[in-house]
Amino acid sequence: MQDPVQLAPPSARPGDPCAMSADAERPRASSVNSAARSLWSHPVSEVRLVDTRRAEALGKSGVSTVEDLIRHYPFRYLDLSMAGAIRDVPFGEDATVVGIVRDVRIKKPRPRLTITEVAIADDTGVVVGVWFNQAYVAQRVKVDDRIAMAGKLEMDFGLRQMKSPFLERLDAEDGPSQLGRILPVHRATEGVSANWMRRLVLEALELAGDVPDPLPAALRVKRNLPSLRHSLRTIHFPGTLTDAAESRRRLAYEEFFTLQLAMALRRHKTVADTPGHAHAVGGRSVDALRKVLPFTLTADQDAAVADVFADMAGPSPMNRLLLGDVGTGKTAVAAFALASVADSGTQAAMMAPTEVLAAQYAGKVGPLLDEIGVSWCLLTGSTPAARRRDTLAALLSGETSVAFGTHALIQEDVAYKHLTLAIVDEQHRFGVEQRLALRHKGESADLLVMTATPIPRSLALTLYGDLDTSYLRERPGDRGPNHVRTRLVNKSHRGAAYDVVRTAVAAGHQAYVVCALVDESDAAEARAATREAERLRTQVFPKLRVDLLTGRMRSAEKTDVMERFRAGTIDVLVSTTVIEVGVDVPNATIMIVEDAERFGLAQLHQLRGRVGRGEHPGEFLVFADPRSQEGKERMKAITTTTDGFLLAEEDLRLRGEGELLGQKQSGLPRLRLASLVGDADLLDMAREDAREIVELDPHLQSPENALIALEAEYVLGADATWVRSG
Predict the structure, then answer these.
(1) Which residues make beta-bridge pairs with 146?
(2) What confidence tens digit (pLDDT) does each residue in 644-658 have?
(3) Sheet of 347-351: strands edge to edge?
(4) Largest CA distance in the chain
(5) For the residues 59-76, what does the mean pLDDT come to?
(6) What is the spatial distance between Cα 478 and Cα 482, in angstroms, rounded to a whole number?
(7) pLDDT at residue 202 is higher than 50
(8) What is the distance between the alpha carbons of residues 143 and 469, in angstroms, rounded to a whole number?
(9) pLDDT digit string (tens) for 92-107?
């Protein structure tokens, strides 16, 4: 991409960019519009009426630049054009009413219950807004204020009422002459009311809202999108709700498009601009591995291996995500990729996020590699110095073909003779820099990213849009969807659940007890698990062998505990979520999860995947007493659904993308308007359009793409380096 140029002053702007050709817009990028666009990065204090006090208040809510204020979009609208006389509003329907405050009261009918009532009146009647345990509402209004209330009108105790309505105090400027319009409602902050926020947004638009449109004109016509200038003004101050929706659609599309453009550019640089290593995919090691595998691959595994082999045999570097549900066998797919590298006479490195997982992969895949004559090693932070020296020497000489390990694989003094395949397991636990560091230990190495954390398709496109994707949904062997039974257990019925554990241990099996994270401190989580282990050891299971595993333990301690648990010398393992991903002990058939309502669905599903991994069925017992509706829905979902991808979609619906996008490691632009839940169609369109543009113009050098190239560079900022890094 090109270096950013400054965009130009609104004074010289003739018309709406939507009506102009791409060729006409391009010169303005460097002349006419430089001032308006460059102002977006300036401090918000440059906006008229934003004094020092207001700038500080805005900063506390995340609004620190002119762009932040321009993009401080309304979160709802009051349709004052539909505000009728109070007496004419029908019962049982959502409506907006406008009136003068006649009374404000706070009632306390019983302990821990406050009722706030605000009565407003117009010339035709009175309506009372009622809020429960929201006494702060009384501080927002006073008698004689003019306000709008929006909600469902009901008749209760002989009075017209609205339960928990939305309330907005109207200024003089929102008087009778303004009632024919849509009133935007922006999120306020302490020191800046919603009314003042509305004024400041208008001032920001007057200062710097007259900017060029980065989207190519042909693309706007194809997708029927209004111009950026029009959309920014209309989303804040629409004439109708339809106008607001159209502007929101355009701005949400642009958010997705910029993100997908970055992904498409990165993918093209990795796949098309860089020559790769064509691996042998049908050689002796691959054939031998098929013969020594103790099971037959599922159809999904066969398809994934075919995808991987097609990439590895091709002329460009592989850039693939293997997205598997819990227990669907992604490790077996990885093993075939490793065998192909051995047949090619080169090297592979497989990096896991923890020493426990790295050792487990070495323990599972290593013996298979031994059987087919492929050399391998394990390198972690706790590898003894002498062994580490020998291991590094073998990697540098090429004597060792496959390296399993943790981030120790990417330390500066680790060098490979010819690394052509990098496998990164549980990608979301690594930063992008770590993923790139492993890949760059070789020259144009193939990359296979794996995760057993099912994520919704829309989230996968957002987080991993630069990767091709293979899915694993089918579980091998006889482990069907009912192999592990999930039960919600009221906390008062602990005794029965503990009996299940005793019965399982008596039958020769083992159990986990998982403690929830009670706050953001690993230390606090470890302390809670330590206390629970002591309680279970002394009071509940005095005749069983109970031990403890936490993330705070030293690596050697964790390895020792897992080896003893795997060997069967521990009956009940009390653990934090350190065992969430990848831990494989086939003899463990029972898991109890404490305070399960504290976990997300994806995490609960991962935990469930730790039991029933062998021939014996498992039981997953969740101790929970959910109070919120979301918590109840989550518990219902985990007890009725075993498909990780369906659970991921439900998790996205319940929690929204805000929390789930927190998993993102790249730091790419956040989504202000676009929703992974409600705008999946826009995401698909943006992905299709971005890939098409990059395929035709991979360096965005044509005149019609000049502005979007500049905008992408501006929006991505430091992350433009990530796009170029491949």
Answers:
(1) 100
(2) 888 888 888 777 665
(3) 376-379, 402-405, 347-351, 419-425, 446-451, 319-324, 468-472
(4) 91
(5) 94
(6) 10
(7) yes
(8) 60
(9) 888 889 999 999 999 9
Q: At what angle do helices 355-371 and 284-292 cross, to 10 degrees?
A: 100
Say if CB 93 and CB 101 are below 8 A apart: no
Using only the alpha carbons of the chain, give its radius of gyration: 30
Q: Which single residue is written with the structure tokens 């193939």?
A: 446
The DSSP line for 443-473 is SS-EEEEEESS---HHHHHHHSTTSEEEEE-
The DSSP bridge pattern shows strands 146-156 and 94-110 to be antiparallel
Please report the pLDDT score of residue 517 as a whole number: 59
> Can you list the domains of the chain with their CATH numbers?
7-75+199-237 (no CATH), 76-185 (2.40.50.140), 284-472 (3.40.50.300), 484-642 (3.40.50.300)
What's the average model confidence in pLDDT over 436-445? 88
Q: For residue 394, what pLDDT is reported?
A: 96
Name the residue among 637, 631, 607 with its Cα closest to residue 621. 607
What is the per-residue burial (b if ≥16 Cβ within 10 Å, else e) of 620-634? Answer: bbbbbebeeeebeeb
Average pLDDT over residues 399-420: 95
Residue 696: CB atoms within 10 Å: 9
534, pLDDT greater than 50: yes
* Interatomic CA distance for residues 262 and 700, integer angstroms: 11
Q: Residue range 228-241: average pLDDT?
A: 94
When comparing pLDDT for 600 and 570, which is higher?
570
Return the exposure string of 571-609: e unless at least 16 CB atoms fall within 10 Å of the residue's CB, then b. Answer: bbbbbbbbbbbbbbbebbbbbbbbbbbbbbbbbbbbbbb
Three-state SS across 11-34? HHCCCCHHHCCHHHHHHHHHCCEH
Torsion sign over Cα 649, 651, 655, 659: negative
- Rounded to 10 degrees, the C-alpha dihedral 34/36/37/42 comes to 110
Q: Which residue in the block uniquely carries the two structure tokens 């923890």?
A: 354
Query: Do 403 and 377 meet the contact criterion of CB atoms below 8 Å apart?
Result: yes
H or E segment to which residue 549 belongs:
strand 546-549
For residue 522, pLDDT over 80 is answered with: no
DSSP for 121-132 reads E-SS-EEEEEEE
Q: What is the pLDDT of residue 244?
A: 95
Phi then psi for residue 293, to 5 deg, are -60, 130
pLDDT, the chain, mean:
85
Q: How far apart are CA 135 and CA 168, in angstroms?
A: 16
| CA pair distance 117, 129, nearest whole angstrom | 6
pLDDT in tens, 326-359: 778 899 999 999 999 999 999 999 999 888 889 9
Give mean pLDDT, residues 187-205.
90
Distances (CA, A) of 369 to 344, 440, 630: 15, 25, 47
The answer to whether the CB of 577 falls within 8 A of the CB of 517 is: yes
Instruction: Give the Cα separation of 724 and 643 in Å (integer).
Output: 36
Using CA atoms, how far residue 299 sits from 282, 305, 333, 335, 481, in Å, is 19, 10, 12, 16, 16
Nearest-5° angle of CA 478, CA 484, CA 487?
Answer: 160
Q: Is the pTM of this model over 0.85?
A: no
Residues forming beta bridges with residue 104, ordered by sequence position: 118
Lowest-confidence segment of 114-128, 152-166, 430-444 by average pLDDT: 430-444
SS (H, E, C) 624-685: CCCCCHHHHHHHHHHHHCCCHHHHHHHHHHHHHHHHHHHHCCCCCCCCCCCCCCCCHHHHHH
pLDDT at 428: 63
pLDDT band at 19 (very low <50, low <70, confident <90, very high): very low
Q: What's the count of helices (H) and strands (E) in the chain, helices before strands?
A: 25, 23
Spatial distance between the Cα atoms of 223 and 212, rounded to a whole number of angstroms? 18
pLDDT of residue 26: 38
